[in-house]
Amino acid sequence: MAEKRFTIVIHGGAGTILKEDMTPELEKAYEAALRDALEAGYGVLSAGGNAVNAVKAAIVVMEDNILFNAGRGSVFTKRGTQEMDAAIMDGDSLNAGAVAGLRNVRNPIELATEIMRNSNHVFLSGKGATDFAIKQGVKLEPDEYFFSQFRYDQWKAIRDSDTYSLDHTNTHIEELMRDKKFGTVGAVACDQYGNLAAATSTGGMTNKKYGRIGDSPVIGCGTYANNNTCAISCTGHGEKFIEAVAAHDVSCLMEYKGLTIQEAMNVVINEKLVGIGGEGGMIGVDHEGTPNMALNSAGMYRGFKSSDGSERIAIYGD
């Protein structure tokens, strides 16, 4: 079987990401972090690895980087702890694994993959998910591992209010309320065999209450992959992405209406989501290895790399 074009696409969150708010040092740090994640995923694909392992590798790099609201860099909840969500889906088998309300697991995407492969379930949450992580030997970390001063300051500014924030933002409360940054990481891939996979991981909202869960771990909403159409990972106002069943809708538009991945993502991001007040973005790849990145917000940390030599890293809505 002839080798197909292979591609990895990643995102590190979307929202009000403006050049005037970014220092040159921070911009370089984000670009380097995105490049590291791209190279991790692309390395798997170029060695003949499958799409599932490629997206997992890219996500692990971002979960380990404190710049992103996932894994180590996860934001604080109302109770001053981290609750992490993640999902992964194999476009070949349509098998999926997801986890929500997770604490102390270093790489939630590793646990989502174990759930997909070894649990006979799709979605685990809370203590049960942690128990399964221990059984499978997934690495745990103490609370201190997930502490970062700027996330703590961010939370401290709003913890005594009923406000929550979807962000990677500055610490002043006026700026916190002005800046909306949806901190999620995601990856999608097409391997050289034409198989697709998608994965998403997040720390959710700063100051979130009631065990809130967004779109990231919900299959079909924030994460979806199907070899017949596309692989999608979303980032944005999670409630709206759930209501729009955003990731699966892209696949449906391709399957039933014959749209290209660019056309389908444009309809969902710039028409359907905008129509219900949903802000954010998504990344996608089709079974030909065609990458696409779409956003209706001011910016999205994003990038792709493909075996045809094309690659791009971007931050702003250009």
TrEMBL record:
GO terms (BP aspect): proteolysis
UniProt-listed InterPro entries: Ntn_hydrolases_N, Peptidase_T2
Catalytic center residues: T184 (nucleophile)
Gene Ontology molecular-function annotations: hydrolase activity, acting on carbon-nitrogen (but not peptide) bonds, in linear amides; peptidase activity
Cleavage, annotated site positions: G183, T184
Pfam families, alphabetized: Asparaginase_2 (PF01112)
SUPFAM superfamilies associated with the record: N-terminal nucleophile aminohydrolases (Ntn hydrolases)
Binding-site residues, substrate: R212, I213, G214, D215, T235, G236, H237, G238
Keywords: Autocatalytic cleavage, Hydrolase, Protease
PANTHER family hit by this protein: L-ASPARAGINASE (PTHR10188), N(4)-(BETA-N-ACETYLGLUCOSAMINYL)-L-ASPARAGINASE (PTHR10188:SF6)
Annotated protein name in UniProt: Isoaspartyl peptidase
Organism: Rhizosphaericola mali
